[in-house]
Amino acid sequence: MTVHPSLQTSIDAWTHSIDAISELVTPLPESEWNRATECPGWSVRDIVSHVIGLECEMLGDPRPIHTLPRDLFHMTGELGRYMEVQVDVRRCHTAPEMTSELEYTVIRRARQLRNEKRQPDTMVRWPGGGELSLEDALTRRAFDVWVHEQDLRRALNQPGNLDSPGAYVTRDLLLSALPKVVAKDAGAAPNSAVVFDVNGPIEFMRTVRVDADGRATIDGSVSLGPSVTLSLDWETYVRLACGRVRADAVAEQVKVEGDQQLADAILAHFAITP
C-alpha cells in the first residue's frame, strides 16, 4: 500500500467530487460556461478554471505569468488576487479547451495521489503561501472541490451529492470552525451554549459551549436551556458557512429560538471561507 490510511478518506472524497465536476461540465454548450454562480464574480468557466489551477499548483506546475485587469471588483485582498490569476488567464478559453485541460489535470493529479508515499505530517507548499501538513492539504482540497461542485450544481440546476464523501469532509471542517465563530467572532457570553440543529441529506446536532473563561468547545450532546438554537437544512448551512449567501436572504430557512441578538451575531460571522 502506498497511500497512508489517514489520507484515503480525503483522496476518495476528492476523486468523487472531481469526477462529478467533469460529468457536469463536459456536455455543456459554450453558452453555459458563462452562467453566473453564487461564488462572487465567478462563472461556471471561472470555477472550473480555479479547480484546474489549484490542482496544477498541487502538482508543482509553475503559475501563469499574467497581469490582472483593473476592473475585477469582486476581488478582495492579496489572496483573492492570487486566486484570480489562474481564473482570469482562462477566461478566453473555449469549452473544448476547458474540458480537455480539466481531464488532463485530473488524470495527472489522480496518478500523483495513487502513488503518494509521504507521511500525513509531511509539510507541503500550499497555494497562496505557507505550508500545511499533507493531511490538512488533502482535506482542504477535498473540501474546496466539493463546495465548488455544489456551486456548479446550483448554477446549472442539477442538484445532487449533498451526502457524498466530500460532504462529510466539508461537514467536519465547517464544524471545527464553530467554536471560534460563536465565542470569539460573535462574542457569546461565558457559561453559555449555542445549539445547531441541521437537517436534510446530512443531519446532525452540535452544541458549542463557552466556559467561564470564554473558551469554546463543540460536542454532540444535548444542551439544557441553550442561549440560542439555530435550526436549518444542510444546504443552507453550507451556503452560509461558505459565504455563498447572506443570512437575510435565507431568513425563512433558518429558525431561531432564544437570543435573537446572539443569533444575528453568529450568522453575521458564519462564513469561514476567504
Automatic annotation (TrEMBL):
Domain MDMPI C-terminal: 171-264
Superkingdom as given in the UniProt entry: Bacteria
Gene3D superfamilies: dinb family like domain (1.20.120.450)
Signal peptide annotation: none
InterPro entries linked: DinB/YfiT-like (IPR034660), Maleyloyr_isom (IPR017517), MDMPI_C-term_domain (IPR010872), MDMPI_metal-binding (IPR024344)
Molecular functions (GO terms): metal ion binding
Domain annotation Mycothiol-dependent maleylpyruvate isomerase metal-binding: ranges: 15-153
Protein name: Maleylpyruvate isomerase family mycothiol-dependent enzyme
Originating species: Streptomyces himastatinicus ATCC 53653
